[in-house]
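[SOLVED] Need 3D model of a two-part complex

Original post:
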Amino acid sequence: MSNYYPLNSQQAMEYVGKLGIFPDHSSLVCREIGDGNLNLVFHIKEKSAATGVIIKQALPYARVVGESWPLTLDRARIESEALIVHHCMCPGMVPKVYHYDPGLALTVMEDLSTHIILRKGLMARTAYPLFAKQIGSFLARTLLLTSDIVLDPLEKKNRMIQFSNPEMCKITEDLVFTDPYYDAETNRFNPLLDEEVKKIWGNDKLKYQIAKLKEKFLTHSQALIHGDLHTGSIMVTGNDLKVIDPEFAFYGPMGFDVGALFANLLLSYASQVGHSLSVEERKRKDYQNYLLNTIEQVWLAFEQEFRALWKEQAKEPTAAAKGYVDDYIMRILQDASGFAGCKMLRRVIGLAHVEDLESIEDLESRAKGEKLALGIGQQLVIKGDRIQNIKDITSLAKKVSSDG
Amino acid sequence: MSNYYPLNSQQAMEYVGKLGIFPDHSSLVCREIGDGNLNLVFHIKEKSAATGVIIKQALPYARVVGESWPLTLDRARIESEALIVHHCMCPGMVPKVYHYDPGLALTVMEDLSTHIILRKGLMARTAYPLFAKQIGSFLARTLLLTSDIVLDPLEKKNRMIQFSNPEMCKITEDLVFTDPYYDAETNRFNPLLDEEVKKIWGNDKLKYQIAKLKEKFLTHSQALIHGDLHTGSIMVTGNDLKVIDPEFAFYGPMGFDVGALFANLLLSYASQVGHSLSVEERKRKDYQNYLLNTIEQVWLAFEQEFRALWKEQAKEPTAAAKGYVDDYIMRILQDASGFAGCKMLRRVIGLAHVEDLESIEDLESRAKGEKLALGIGQQLVIKGDRIQNIKDITSLAKKVSSDG
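Solution:
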């Protein structure tokens, strides 16, 4: 860390200028585009060009809700190395890494100005017809190809060390699995949810399942997972998809990535009921149906590609055992359900919320969406072990909606 | 490895002489007492003294059944560091480490000449009234205190790196979970078992469970386990117990250690029927009952200490969730059953056998014991998921005996 200093725009431009990415004597312009809470993000291009490159530099602290705590710069290494692994497995589905600088904790990577954050697209109720197939394939490839089923056992253990990420895991452990389930200082929630949240804190059956899910997150070194695969970590155009920001990557349970995605699609689903004042019912219902259908399609695409890859690429001798792949996939689905539930609950009760709900200014309206999210989240956690197919998850969401 | 050379007795004596363990000008004697297959073991003492010290030096290869393959010297580090961790948690229950030399891959440790290998004691049908309580406590302490339930999450992840042990794990992965289940070159078994073994190779239900157990071994980073806790890794006197040889230690499933112990007690149980020509039935039956009772007592001692420690020392906030500790313990028992089954099968079919059975020279007699071991082992694997308490395991052993 001795060489580390946070760049300003001028320094960022000079830094990139030396890398030989742009022709000599290019006339560069630089804009800082990050929110500066965790990272500095610079967009640098030739004056006349449409796109250029991104510099993402980790800051040695996290600034959340006015507070600031120290945060490892090693996450920049994790992110750049995970992007490289993902690129090998899913070429074109992550930003290209041009350069990584350990001393400055920065990565120079592909400019994605042509893409938008998926969450923004969902908030605008946009349909992405290719999305399910693309992300299903990304999940199947990145998860299965980094697991013991395909990797040489010695290499897998080396990868576990390479992607040991204790400080970033600790954030998830606290904010996803611990703090939302008691009256923790980090929590913040809509005061209209007081009663609901207190019920959650007193729900022993729920907390028992949360304990088991946290244990899985802590102990199940199954695959190199993205670790933070919400709809803000995915960028899209009408036909392209890129998965960004794998700074939480580590060897963990496959279901955590699948569940994170489901949770965020379901948060968008739940947010629709909060818009009842401003958007006609038909539009909201249609988009809810689109989202549930997308969840089903993501799972089907995931399962199809996972089975095909297993057949083609499994090197683990036990992989051929009769019934094993079916059981393996079923356990991913059940884990995904439980993790999706945790992730929904924490986005309403815990420190970090989602814009889908947060953008609803009227607290009463927002509470409607949040209550639905809490309802679905709890059911996913409690019934996770008994989920048998993807329709059990989407039906459960519909049932909670109509019961509510 | 550049400084490494294997010591001879003279060099071993000179090496110890310089450590200041013995008074200056002591007159030392040295005897090599290992079998030289994996390690050199020297016993060094003052001429007139009863006890001295042990030097254990790893060899850069393993010599098994005439073959020789390269084997990491890092296992000497793993062993000495695991002994130190175990000593902190269970003072007096492992040999004291006096000195560790990474370059020579050797550890100077406490002399246990006063103790015998437990397996030898079992072969002589000796009863050890304190054994169950001692080993139950060792298991509870070493497993729970190195888990996420007690350790700080950052420290646990650092320990996972410290005890990353891929080459030694690979040996277990191959010899316990893979090779015994097909016609592998490494296998060797009594020709009178041909039919039984072929049935095992064709048993899909069994191989499905084996695949899941292997997955658990590969992915479940639950605690720092000994990794090879058979009755040859335990030394005893009438009232003392020491656990030795943790060179397979790594972060794995708790049930693997518990299961290894159960397997080896059950192998001794099974071996009794092989002695029907030479030992009267009453004696053999009594010892079988003693062994099953010991298994029950080990588990009860383990569970009691585990619950007490959980109550006193759990730092993981979710540990208090209602019903969680019960579920946690139940899963250890079920895992132990499955792993015990694998371990029994591999000791009959695979590369490394146990003296309990191997010492029966008459192949017909030995096959009787081996068939019982295969019968119990298969049932433990297949029924592992449904085991509800320790008596389910001992009853199962009795039932297979009487059915056989």
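Edit: Chain B has 14 helices and twelve strands.
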